[in-house]
Amino acid sequence: MTISHRTNRRSFLQQAALAAFAAPVFIRNLRAAPPGEVVRHASFGASGMAHADLTSIVSHPKSKLICVADVDLGRGNELKKAFPDLRVYQDWRQMLDKESANLDSVNVSTPDHMHAAMGMSAMQRGLHVYGQKPLTHDVYDSRRLAQVAAEKKLVTQMGIQIHSHPAYRSAVQLIQEGAIGKVQSVHSWSSKKWGDETPRPDRKDPVPANVDWEQWLGVCESRPFIGDGYYHPGNWRKRLDFGTGTFGDMGCHIFDPVFKALELTAPLTLRSAGPAPTPHNWANNAVVHLTFPQTAQTIGPVVPITWYDGDQRPPAEVTAKWLKDQPLPDQGSLFIGEKGALLLPHVDMPILLPVAQYKDYPRPKLQDINHWHSFVEAVRGNGTTAAHFGYAGPLTESVLLGGVSTFFPNETLEWDAAKLQFKNKPEAARLIRRTYRKGWEVSGLS
What span, in angstroms and rounded, lies between the C-alpha atoms of 351 and 258? Predict the structure, then answer.
């Protein structure tokens, strides 16, 4: 059986269409723009994923881009070709101070280390937030953003756009309707390598002319700029202080349908069987074993889920029974149930296994949903968001905890979600909550 309906991120950005998608939990927005008004929007970030987010948001006919903040003024000014009236800032804090009274919403689409500071600062001003994945760089900050979004009854959405795609939604529906029976275990993987085993270069390079390096560093301690893309613009995901490695990046996508379908909460234990990070960089080839409490969709008493990245994959004793001639995709998940299995490539339609057993099984017929437009509509008081921070916060926490576990190879860490601490590893506390650089503190976080 060949895989069909293949959709990469770019084509999904182009194909997504507006529709309604109810979230399991929704806090009614009290600051919604009246339905007839235009949502006034600002972007943290001007290029890359920020450009994809802001253009997708303002492609909604009732949304308008007012201003943008980017540490690289050249990128901000480039946007003015498409948005001549755009106001451009290099300091995001200055943008909020001057513009927040004229705004309804923002998107936070920057390197991971600034997600929490920007998102929290916007929400404290009553602004609705579309925040890129991972929601934050650190576990504590994800918990706080979810709490504050609920307290202030703001519309939020995390940038896991495949959450709204028919492929992921179909997988969730098939699992929850019992197509493969109760789920016994899940294996998820990504071929990406957001790690680096080489030492950090001992040099100081000139900062690009348009870039404010101290603004780029933001909440992280000052250090020399290193060129050749070491930090900006391309490889910050590999660096401990700024990115969250492969698990933090792709886990938010690939764990999403697992988290949703199985109705997971917080992990009970985590155990890393892969290499530890270096002093400055994440490692590649992670293997992280997590257990979660039993749910209505699973067989208890715990649910074992394993993450693999880089060159690591589920072992042959796991895949041989189910895949046979079916190739293993570069990224995806394999759900193993009582009656069969479900293979979910990233991003493609789910495949029920064995193929012959399920050849006549009815598949869901779902429409595309525009992840960005549903955010705009929710801000306008119409409908809800599917990946609001009440859902995205716990998802991000679980993914980030996987990264934390890699600092302690071959040790089983017992997680106390209520207390945000490991019961048996108090020295891991430093990896749960970061200290913000002096002068960059944010109320409610640092």
Answer: 15
- pLDDT of 90-102, one tens digit each? 999 999 999 999 9
By three-state DSSP, how is residue 270 classified? strand
In whole angstroms, give the CA distance from residue 137 to residue 436. Answer: 12
- Which of these, 101, 10, 122, lies nearest to 55 by C-alpha position? 10
Which among 319, 386, 400 is positioned nearest to 353, based on CA atoms?
319
Residues 6 or more apart whose Cβ sits within 8 Å of residue 195: 238, 245, 246, 277, 281, 282, 283, 284, 285, 310
Do the strands 421-422 and 128-131 form a parallel or antiparallel pair, or are they unpaired? unpaired
Amino acid occupying residue 305 = I
For residue 421, give the DSSP letter. Answer: E
The string of pLDDT tens digits covering residues 242-266 is 999 999 999 999 999 999 999 999 9
Residues 125, 106: Cα–Cα separation, whole Å = 11
CA distance 275 to 280: 14
- Please state, in angstroms and rounded to a whole number, the distance separating the CA atoms of residues 406 and 314: 18
Distance CA 200, CA 226 (A): 9
Is 3.40.50.720 the CATH number for 9-162+372-386?
yes
Please count the other Cβ atoms lying within 10 Å of the Cβ belonging to residue 235: 17
- pTM for this predicted structure: 0.91
How far apart, in Å, are the Cα atoms of 170 and each of 63, 162, 256?
A: 30, 11, 13
Q: Where are the alpha helices (DSSP H) in 177-293?
A: 213-217, 245-262
